[in-house]
C-alpha cells in the first residue's frame, strides 16, 4: 500500500475524501493503520467556525490502530497503540521544564496543514504518521477500540487535571461540566480515593451520565463547599461556580476554558486569606497518556459507554456526522474492521 485514504476538511462544513501518499519514515517515526477514531467536540467547534484551525487539513486527534511500519525502538509491527496529541522537540526551555505540551515547536495531531511537513497527521484517515517526539502507549486487548481512542485526548487530559489537584484521598470534589472529560473525571476521582464527588451540569441528560457513580448530581446553583473543583465546561459561569465552591485550602483546576470568553473576577484577598489555589491545565504530558490507558483498562467498565458512544459510522460517512450530529459525546468512526468484527 502506497497511499492512505483521508477525509480532508476544506472549510466550513465541507470535507473531501482523497488519497494521500504514505511518507518514507525517518528515524524515530512509525506508521499506524487506524482501526477506530472518535469525534471530539473540539473538532465540531472547528467545523462550526468557533475555533480556528489549519485548512485544508486532516482533523481528528482521538484514534487507535496497529503499527504497520516503524523506525522506533519502542514499537514493533503489529502492536495496538494510541498516541499523544503533541509531538515535541524535547530540548527547548519548556520541554526542559517538563512542560512538553507547551513546546516552542509543538505540532499537534489533527491540527497541521495538509500542505505542511506533516500532512498525514489526523485520525480521520486510514493511516496516521507518527513523528519522532510523539508518545505512544500500547493498549491491552481488554480495552475496546472506541474507549481506547479517547485515551489520546479526553482521558489523558483528565489524568493531567487530577495530577494538578494533588492527592484526592478523603477530599470533597466538584466536577463541573459532565461531558466526556467530566464523566471520566467523576470516575477517576472516586478511583483516586475522593470521599465525596459532586457532578454538576445544567443538562439533566448530562447529569444522568454520572448518576450511580457520583455521590451527588446537581444543577448549577446553591452552595457546596469542596476541597477540589474541576472546571471542564469552559463556561464563565462554571468557572465562577467552581471558585465559589472552594473551602479553606481548596484547589480549583481549570481545563475547559480553551477558547476566548468573558473575564472572571477574582478577589485576591479571598484567595490569600483562604489559602486557595487556582491553576490551569491544557493538553498533557507523556506520562498522562500511559496513565490514561491504565485507567481505562482498570476503570473503563464503569463508564456508561452505551450512552457515551454513537455510531459506528464509516470514514465515508464522517462528513454527515458534522452536518447532522447524533447528539452523543463521542461518535465512533470505524475506519478498518479487524477480522470482520466491530471495533466498538
Automatic annotation (TrEMBL):
Assigned EC number: 1.1.1.1
Alphabetized Gene3D superfamilies for the sequence: Medium-chain alcohol dehydrogenases, catalytic domain, NAD(P)-binding Rossmann-like Domain
GO CC terms in record: cytoplasm
Family annotation (InterPro entries): ADH-like_C, ADH-like_N, ADH_phosphonate_catab-assoc, GroES-like_sf, NAD(P)-bd_dom_sf
Domain Alcohol dehydrogenase-like C-terminal stretches: 181-297
Transmembrane segments: none
Cofactor dependency: Zn(2+)
Alcohol dehydrogenase-like N-terminal domain mapped to chain residues: 27-141
Keywords, sorted A to Z: Metal-binding, NAD, Oxidoreductase, Zinc
Molecular function as annotated in GO: alcohol dehydrogenase (NAD+) activity; metal ion binding
NCBIfam families registered for this protein in UniProt: HpnZ_proposed (TIGR03366)
Entry similarity comment: Belongs to the zinc-containing alcohol dehydrogenase family.
Protein name: alcohol dehydrogenase
Organism: Corynebacterium halotolerans YIM 70093 = DSM 44683
Amino acid at each position: 500500500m502506497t497511499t492512505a485514504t483521508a477525509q480532508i476538511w476544506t472549510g466550513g462544513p465541507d470535507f473531501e475524501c482523497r488519497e494521500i501518499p504514505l511518507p518514507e519514515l525517518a528515524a524515530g517515526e512509525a506508521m499506524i493503520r487506524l482501526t477506530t477514531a472518535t469525534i471530539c467536540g473540539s473538532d465540531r467547534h472547528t467545523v462550526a467556525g468557533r475555533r480556528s484551525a489549519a485548512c485544508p487539513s486532516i482533523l481528528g486527534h482521538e484514534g487507535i490502530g496497529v503499527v504497520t511500519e516503524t523506525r522506533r525502538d519502542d514499537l514493533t509491527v503489529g502492536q495496538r497503540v494510541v498516541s499523544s496529541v503533541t509531538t515535541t522537540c524535547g530540548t527547548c526551555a519548556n520541554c526542559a521544564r517538563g512542560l512538553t505540551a507547551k513546546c516552542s515547536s509543538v505540532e499537534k495531531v489533527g491540527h497541521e496543514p495538509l500542505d505542511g511537513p506533516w500532512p498525514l497527521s489526523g485520525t480521520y484517515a486510514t493511516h496516521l504518521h507518527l513523528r519522532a517526539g510523539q508518545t505512544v502507549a500500547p493498549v491491552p486487548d481488554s480495552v475496546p477500540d472506541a474507549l481506547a481512542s479517547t485515551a489520546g485526548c479526553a482521558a489523558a487530559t483528565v489524568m493531567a487535571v487530577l495530577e494538578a489537584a494533588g492527592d484526592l484521598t478523603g477530599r470533597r470534589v466538584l466536577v463541573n461540566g459532565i461531558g466526556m472529560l467530566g464523566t471520566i473525571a467523576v470516575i477517576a476521582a472516586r478511583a483516586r480515593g475522593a470521599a465525596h464527588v459532586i457532578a454538576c451540569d445544567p443538562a439533566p441528560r448530562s447529569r444522568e451520565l454520572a448518576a450511580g457513580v457520583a455521590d451527588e448530581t446537581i444543577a448549577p446553583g446553591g452552595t457546596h463547599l469542596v476541597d477540589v473543583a474541576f472546571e471542564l465546561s469552559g463556561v464563565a459561569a462554571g468557572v465562577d461556580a467552581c471558585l465559589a465552591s472552594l473551602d479553606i485550602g481548596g484547589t480549583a483546576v481549570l481545563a475547559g476554558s480553551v477558547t476566548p470568553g468573558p473575564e472572571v473576577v477574582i478577589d485576591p484577598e479571598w484567595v490569600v486569606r483562604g489559602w486557595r489555589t487556582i491553576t490551569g491545565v491544557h493538553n498533557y504530558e507523556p506520562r498522562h497518556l500511559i496513565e490514561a490507558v491504565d485507567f481505562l483498562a482498570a476503570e473503563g467498565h464503569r463508564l456508561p459507554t452505551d450512552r457515551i458512544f454513537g455510531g459506528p459510522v464509516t470514514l465515508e460517512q464522517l462528513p454527515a456526522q458534522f452536518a447532522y450530529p447524533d447528539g452523543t459525546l463521542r461518535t465512533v468512526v470505524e475506519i478498518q474492521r479487524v477480522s470482520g468484527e466491530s471495533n466498538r
